[in-house]
Design brief:
The complex is a heterodimer of chains A (547) and B (335). Helix content of chain A is 38%, strand content 25%. With 547 residues, chain A is α/β, with parallel strands linked by helices. In chain A, strand 9 and strand 10 form a beta hairpin. The longest helix of chain A has 18 residues. Chain A is globular and about 70 Å long. Chain B is an all-alpha fold. Chain B contains 17 helices and no strands. The chains are: A alpha/beta (547), B mainly alpha (335). At the A-B interface, helix 2 and helix 4 of A face helix 11 and helix 12 of B.
């Protein structure tokens, strides 16, 4: 493309390997990244996109000469301003990190040290590398806190990580990366762990800060709609190899590869909502709930769900949507109100519910990983409810487990695998089979796809829809993702701070006139469209100017 | 408590919410007091249940029934158990541990001297052992799985595996007998100069340091290693900090709670567990005093020593708890 000297970062034929130790097998070398090359000019942003395991974070960290968890850079070169940083040696790399190249982690909450004040951590690298005096670094931090729109920038640095919100932490981490006036910042999924309404603010803050400081950036994410807002170029990766690489407009508007096309078109599905939404299988009447310390989490929530239909419960973290599911299952007794299931009131507490009621309501969790015993095989995991509810044993049980594996579109060959030997999507499928094993009528799905890659998540959603049609299942589907709502819901409930702000058939709930919160929520969902972020921000400015 | 009325409940709740740290510390202190009271009852009851009695041991051959009855009445042992317990407890609360049956001296006075000696020995050992253990622990994390780590580990394991009397005699053999550079026995007396004292107790101190060092060092290593895999340690590395700075500045503060706990446990051991070392080195501390008292069934002395040991143990553990709580930034700086 251009001549090499004009590039800040230039990566050639990068190869990264690691040694894996599969259980019960000899150790083997695996290639994480293979033959990846790209160039990044000063002040530009390159988006690295792909599903988990595509090697995008590994490439990002290679720009800091770092291999996470035993990954080793075994081939190629990483040139920063013409110097191959892989040849620098330990001391040279250390001088680079935190000074010329900085890193912003996915979870700032985990990446900040809980024992030190934010301000001290933000300036630490800059001062330690002797780039500025302590006072200069402090005033630089103050300036960055202002640029990033942090509240009370003068005193923000005196706070500890646990004292500020997740979105603020992510912005503080960006400030930490910008503090040393680096040439390059690696953003590793900086907004993935945030609510959509927070994500848009952080995204705007990062974009503004990058422009303001003229820093180049590698922006890593699995969300093409997000990366389209912030990048100049995009590289699509899969299984450690480059799929497609080009200017953002080309990738979004005229993708050449099938895989890229699938990524662009994911989340476009829409479902026709059911016409008749009057006959409720589950009815929640004026339910309020509080924790044992007296903290109120649900305020007077009333909604219903019809047989064979899907009710999407939407809201940001802390809005009470998971608590609603806990109340329905009986894990938390409501402090007032009643829950009716198939015309009969449900006993408030799980312990006193008849076994048959337990069987009819099943749960699928966000993290299939932690919801399964790692020492049990798929046979034990799915077989447990079969024995518990139906008393199945021996060959009858095995036959039924195989039948269930068939329903979730996994081969019977998986029957003796352990959870650790399954991919994220497969684990979630096993969790669905475990719920199905109880022959439920209602399944509460608590963000079952939010930890999965978009294409895998799409597969899980399709499976859930197919099962619903076959078995007349009702779903209460908790999510924060409006695209999922459009794809699967018949009715929608929007929750905010423990209150139900909106409830009704999907067409009604998602059309104007909106209340403030639903409006904000809908406008915050990134769209696969260039310039979307600017448009939303411009509208916001106009609205606030009009007020 | 949670069922208290609105008027009574809300100020208590707000106090707890406003000062979470103080309320937890106050809670710990009350718990410690209750524990100490329970221990006092246990000690009294336990000593009471010991076989053999003072009168017959004291009188030996001349233990006629009349003489035994005389002494029993003289010491007030014919009164009911509960009365004696509360009598004793009342005295203890005023700092009076009674009179020794054997020497007829005030127990408090004698214990005071001995306790001072024991604490001096323990403190001296602690001043050397605690910083040394923590430094070695951090060094061994820094060089983990390399030669320095392995050397530190082998030596500390060897030290912990040998019983303290054996270590004590070894040290005496080499440093006092063969090379003659240390003093034995390590008997201190009143009016001894400070430096002379330090010199005298060099060997028992060294023995104690060797015994407690390994445990603290290994726990420090384990505690720091467990936070080394945290995301913020990766952040430190990606900031270009040196390995040593990352350990000292970023890992150690987050491993404080377990380190404080093991240090307190070992400090308590230094005070309570010195019995053997004191006997080996003929050091006039609490341990030897207690051993002597047990052999002649001098109950007031045994009870006093037991209660003081228990109090030291509880106090140090309470301090460790409180420090570990204070070390948690979430409690120190509530939202």
């Amino acid at each position: 493309m251009h001549e090499a000297s004009s590039h800040l970062l230039s990566v050639r034929n990068l190869k990264i390997e690691a040694t894996s130790y599969p259980p019960g097998e000899p150790a083997k070398r695996i290639t994480i990244v293979d033959d990846v090359s790209f160039d990044l000019a000063k002040g530009k942003v390159l988006g690295l996109i792909g599903e988990s395991g595509a090697g995008k974070s590994t490439i990002g960290l290679a720009a800091l000469g770092y291999g996470r968890g035993g990954a080793e850079i075994t081939g190629g070169e990483v040139k920063l301003d013409g110097t191959d940083i892989l040849q620098l040696g330990k001391g040279g790399i250390r001088k680079l990190r935190g000074a010329r190249v900085c890193y912003v982690a996915q979870s700032a909450a985990a990446a900040f040290n809980p024992a030190h004040k934010l301000g001290d951590q933000v300036i630490e690298a800059t001062v330690k590398h002797r780039l500025m005096s302590k006072e200069e670094a402090r005033s630089r931090a103050l300036y960055l806190f202002q640029v990033l729109g942090l509240p009370n920038p003068e005193t923000f640095g005196d706070r500890f990580p646990h004292q500020v919100s997740g979105g603020q932490l992510q912005r503080a981490m960006t400030a930490m990366a910008l503090c040393s006036k680096p040439d390059l910042i690696v953003f590793d999924e900086p907004t993935t762990a945030l609510d959509v309404t927070t994500q848009i603010d952080v995204l705007a803050a990062i974009k503004h800060a990058i422009e303001e400081t003229d820093t180049a950036a590698l922006y890593i994410t699995h969300d093409l709609a997000v990366v389209a807002q912030i990048s100049d170029d995009i590289m699509v990766l899969r299984h450690g190899k480059m799929v497609e690489y080009g200017p953002v407009q080309e990738i979004i508007e005229a993708p050449r590869q099938d895989y890229t096309r699938a990524l662009v078109n994911v989340r476009q599905a829409a479902r026709e909502e059911a016409v008749d939404q009057t006959e409720a299988v589950l009815r929640v009447d004026h339910v309020s709930a509080q924790y044992s310390n007296g903290f109120k989490v649900l305020h007077d929530v009333s909604l219903h769900l019809c047989k064979g239909q899907t009710l999407a419960v939407v809201g940001e973290s802390g809005s009470g949507k998971s608590t609603l599911a806990r109340v329905i299952t009986g894990l938390l007794a409501p402090s007032s109100g009643a829950i009716t299931f198939e015309g009969r009131p449900l006993t408030p507490l799980l312990k006193s519910r008849p076994r048959d009621d337990l069987r009819r309501i099943q749960l699928i969790y966000q993290m299939a990983d932690t919801a399964m015993n790692p020492r049990q095989t798929v046979r034990d995991i799915i077989g447990r409810p079969l024995t518990f509810y139906d008393g199945l044993r021996g060959s009858a049980k095995t036959a039924r487990v195989k039948e269930l594996l068939d329903q979730i579109e996994m081969g019977t060959g998986f029957i003796d695998r352990y959870p650790a030997e399954l991919s994220g999507g497969q684990k979630q499928r096993v969790a669905i089979a475990r719920a199905l094993a109880a022959r439920p009528e209602l399944i509460l799905c608590d963000e079952p796809t939010s930890a999965l890659d978009p294409l895998v998540a799409e597969g899980i959603l399709k499976l859930l829809m197919k099962l619903q049609e076959e078995q007349q299942l009702s779903y209460l589907f908790i999510t924060h993702d409006i695209a999922i709502v459009k794809a699967i819901a018949d009715s929608v409930a929007v929750m905010h701070r423990g209150k139900l702000v909106r409830f009704g058939p999907k067409s009604q709930a998602l059309s104007p006139p909106f209340d403030d919160y639903t409006d904000l929520l809908l406008k915050s969902v990134p769209e696969m469209q260039l310039g979307w972020l600017e448009k939303v921000l411009a509208t916001r400015r106009m609205e606030s100017a009009g007020n | 408590m949670s069922n208290s009325t609105e008027a009574g409940g809300s100020p208590a709740r707000s106090l707890r919410e406003r000062f979470p740290l103080l309320s937890i510390i106050a809670q710990r202190m009350v718990l410690s007091l209750i524990l100490l009271l329970a221990v006092s009852a246990l000690i009294f009851g336990g000593v009471e249940a010991l076989p053999g009695d003072f009168a017959s041991t004291y009188l030996g051959q001349s233990a006629t029934p009349e003489a035994v009855a005389n002494i029993t009445a003289e010491l007030g042992l014919d009164r009911p158990l509960v009365t004696r317990y509360f009598d004793w407890l009342g005295g203890v609360l005023q700092g009076d541990f009674g009179t020794s049956w054997a020497s007829r001296n005030s127990v408090s006075e004698q214990v005071g001297n001995r306790l001072g000696n024991s604490l001096f020995l323990a403190a001296f050992a602690a001043v050397i052992a605690v910083p040394l253990a923590i430094c070695l622990g951090m060094l061994s994390v820094h060089f983990r799985d390399r030669i320095p780590d392995k050397i530190i580990n082998v030596i500390s394991l060897a030290a912990i595996s040998l019983p303290e009397f054996f270590v004590g005699y070894l040290l005496i053999l080499y440093f006092a007998v063969n090379f003659g550079i240390a003093t034995f026995p390590a008997t201190v007396y009143q009016g001894m100069g400070f430096l002379e004292r330090l010199q005298t107790i060099a060997l028992p101190t060294a023995t104690l340091v060797l015994v407690v060092l390994a445990h603290m060092m290994r726990m420090t290593r384990a505690a720091i290693l467990s936070v080394m895999s945290s995301a913020y340690m990766e952040t430190a590395e990606l900031k270009g900090l040196s390995g040593w700075r990352a350990i000292v500045k970023h890992a150690a503060p987050n491993a404080l709670a377990p380190i404080i706990n093991v240090v307190a446990l070992n400090l308590a051991y230094l005070v309570v567990g010195v019995v053997v070392v004191e006997v080996v080195f003929v050091y006039p501390g609490m341990g030897q005093y207690m051993v002597d008292a047990v052999t002649v069934r001098d109950m007031p002395v045994v009870q006093a020593c037991g209660l003081i040991f228990a109090a030291v143990y509880i106090l140090l553990n309470m301090l460790a708890d409180i420090l570990a709580i204070i070390a948690n930034p979430r409690l120190r700086h509530p939202r």
